[in-house]
Amino acid sequence: MTQAPLSSQTESRPAGGNPESAEDVLRANTYGLLGHLLATPPTQDSLDLLARINREAIGPQDLLAAAWEMLRQAAGRATPGQLEEEFHDLFTGMGRGELMPYGSWYMTGFLMEQPLAKLRGDLQELGFARQAGVTEPEDHAAALVEVMSMICTGEESIQGLFFHRHIAPWMQRFFRDMQEATSARFYRAVGQLGEQFMEVEREYLRFWQPTEPSTVAERKN
């Protein structure tokens, strides 16, 4: 397995959307954080930032808040050197890592299958283009959450259809597997945050589950 894509896995041509709300900005930032952590091991600056998460600002003491607190504590204990090794064992390994962070793998048991073809069609319709030099397929978990970080301040119907077509069918299972991975220490907390955030997003976007085959772009019309 090659190196995970950077947060700029795709290039976007922004379209018009709804005015940004504070909630949507927070959602976008959380998706962006997950994308960063799934693409590359965090640096010391990133760990310092995570360790300074304001517990009082986290919000209600629910499972998502507990996950943020777990991540804060894990960041305070970790070092960049440890995380480089952990990231390698989880996502790269000798030929492949302990985890397979690909939508096609989770949905079909194989790489480069029909889910990836459908995803590529939706990304093209939304105006995203693959960057030169990127080797990972577009259904890598880091790329998908990065796309969500860029569209979740826009049209909610577009967000919902993309989420339910390409993320909801598998990503919570991936984050649960991350928590159970034998190599995971810091990334156990990342998996907990990812699982709980996906559950919140599933509920938030529940009214936009697709009822018939369509492309994401058709929801613009």
Order of helices and strands: EHHHHHHEHHHH
Q: Span between N and C termini?
A: 39 Å
Mean pLDDT: 86
By CATH's scheme, which homologous superfamily applies? TorD-like
CATH class: Mainly Alpha
CATH architecture name:
Orthogonal Bundle
Low-confidence parts? 1-17
Q: DSSP strand (E) fraction?
A: under 5%
Largest sheet: 2 strands, antiparallel
Give the tally of β-strands. 2
Features:
single chain; mainly alpha; TorD-like; two-stranded antiparallel ribbon
Please describe what this structure looks like.
The protein has helices at 22-39, 44-51, 63-77, 80-92, 103-108, 114-126, 141-151, 156-166, 171-180, 186-204; strands at residues 10-11, 129-130. By secondary structure, the chain is mostly helical. The protein has one domain (20-220): TorD-like (Orthogonal Bundle), CATH 1.10.3480.10. The protein has a two-stranded antiparallel ribbon. Helix 1 (22-39) runs antiparallel to helix 7 (141-151), helix 3 (63-77) runs antiparallel to helix 10 and helix 9 packs antiparallel against helix 10. The N and C termini lie far apart (39 Å).
